[in-house]
Amino acid sequence: MTIHTDIRDGETRPLHQDKGAAPEVLYVPRYTGVQRVNHWITAILFTLLTLSGLAMFSPYLFSLTGLFGGGQATRAIHPWFGVALAVSFVFLFVRFWKLNIPNKDDVEWSKKIGDVVTNREDRLPELGKYNAGQKMVFWGQTGLIAVMLVSGLMIWNTYFGGLTTIETQRWALLAHSLAAVVAIAIIVVHIYAGIWVRGTGRAMVRGTVTGGWAYRHHRKWFRQIAGGLARRGPVDKRGS
């Protein structure tokens, strides 16, 4: 049984229901294959940057350089991971920035953060594709990656060492380190939220979420892509 829709971030793709034991579960397309690949490339690069950066951040973590062939190799490859991350993130930014523009629903959602933590979705406003927390992650990482890129280039002595003074490089190193610590903290929260909200991981693995998940967490977005299906179709609203 196939139910067609014309809207999915400007793309056409069918909604589909799997036949089987009741209740039938509606699967809603949330991310394309290209978007998921872009996300995972960015995630892998961020992980490599974190490990190589921590290896140089403290002597207690120097053993991590073994993952990259030693201290000199780690020092040489870390900046290239950063450049690759910046390029990959630019593609993510271009794809998703419009969907992450804050609106009045985000203000109302933020005021009811207690209900968010206690899973009282019935008290929350209907949301589009992303909530205020997800938007803060997006814009926070956008700014932090920009800071890390610029400061990283300023302390990349192999190519740009002669363009800045020692004092400037020291301030750039401080900014780079602080931005990295905050970015890592944000990603830890991002990963935890993805695990905490059951069914979220499926979106970035298979590209779809259940109708119940979409109805429970992003009802306005669900209505946009499914039209009146949420009101008249056999939708599993348990959020599983």
From TrEMBL:
Tell me its cofactors.
Answer: heme
Q: Where are the transmembrane segments?
A: 40-62, 77-97, 137-159, 171-197
Keyword Iron belongs to the record: yes
Q: Kindly give the SUPFAM superfamilies that the UniProt entry links to this protein.
A: Transmembrane di-heme cytochromes
List the Pfam families: Ni_hydr_CYTB (PF01292)
Protein biosynthesis as a keyword? no
The main location is: membrane
Cellular localization per UniProt: Cell membrane
Q: Which UniProt keywords apply?
A: Cell membrane, Electron transport, Heme, Iron, Membrane, Metal-binding, Transmembrane, Transmembrane helix, Transport
Per the record, membrane topology reads: Multi-pass membrane protein
Enumerate the InterPro entries for this protein. Answer: Cyt_b561_bac/Ni-Hgenase, Di-haem_cyt_TM, FDH_cytochrome_b556_subunit, Formate_DH_gsu
Q: Which residues form the Cytochrome b561 bacterial/Ni-hydrogenase domain?
A: 30-206
- What does the sequence similarity comment in the record state about its family? Belongs to the formate dehydrogenase gamma subunit family.
The protein's name is Formate dehydrogenase subunit gamma
